Amino acid sequence: MALRNIRVNGDEILRKKCRKVENIDHRIITLIEDMKETMYKADGVGLAAPQIGILKRIAVIDVGEGPIVIINPEIIETKGKAVDIEGCLSIPGSQGKVERPDEVKVKAQNEKGEEVILKGKGLLARAFCHEIDHLDGILFIDKVIEGGE
């Protein structure tokens, strides 16, 4: 495992749409392990592959309940609305209020290539939305309704 450099706002890779992962091989598994290590070292709640310069549809999340890996994720259902403060490892020192769904259902693949359906509420729902946005070149500052830069 290795720590990766986190790209910061202004790096054009953060604005690009990521490619679907076609094959989960040892290189992808190594990438996922590096992403987890990098996220934990940076004290983050989530990290998407483009944040470390890789244009693949992969994100890792841990809201305090253990790591979740989502490969080729898509949000298939949302419920409710919630406004809360968000920040981002790629935009250090900036925070702002963002409206997100209060509950989401995500279809993705796990590290074994199995399709999984994951449900998130509150912070986990917010993290799913935030990281999936990264995979489409969207940053939280694009959605700030109050505060932020």
How does this model look, in words?
A hairpin with a 6-residue loop joins strand 2 (about 60) and strand 3 (about 70-80). The chain has a single domain (about 10-145), classed as Alpha-Beta Complex (Peptide Deformylase), CATH 3.90.45.10. It is built from 2 helices and 8 strands, in the order H-E-E-E-E-E-E-E-H-E. The chain starts with about 25 loop residues before the first helix and ends with a strand. By secondary structure, the chain is an alpha+beta fold. The strands form 2 sheets. Strands 1-2-3-6-7 form a 5-stranded antiparallel β-sheet, sandwiched between helices.
Quick recap of the structure?
This protein has 149 residues and is α+β, with helices and mostly antiparallel strands.
Main attributes?
Peptide Deformylase; 149 residues; 3-stranded antiparallel sheet; 5-stranded antiparallel sheet; alpha+beta
What is the strand and helix layout of this fold?
Layout: H1 26-41, E1 46-48, E2 58-61, E3 68-79, E4 82-86, E5 96-100, E6 103-109, E7 115-121, H2 123-135, E8 144-147
CATH superfamily: Peptide deformylase
Spatial ordering of strands, largest sheet: 1-2-3-6-7
CATH architecture title: Alpha-Beta Complex
* Total tally of structural domains: 1
- DSSP E strands, number: 8
CATH topology: Peptide Deformylase
Largest sheet entry: 5 strands, antiparallel
Structure class:
alpha+beta
Instruction: Give the topology string: H per helix, E per strand.
Output: HEEEEEEEHE
Give start-end ranges of low-pLDDT stretches.
Answer: none
Radius of gyration: 14 Å
Give the termini distance in whole angstroms. Answer: 34 Å
